[in-house]
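Quick one:
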Amino acid sequence: MKALYMGLAGTAVIAVAAWLVLNELGFSSAEVHSSENVRLE
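Output:
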């Protein structure tokens, strides 16, 4: 059971870290899939 909890915690940490890094680098889906004619707020 301890291994399951550690795996879930590790997955959550990796997911949050990836989300933060990709947003900082400009790889959010809104920025990637929008053209110059779309206003992002």
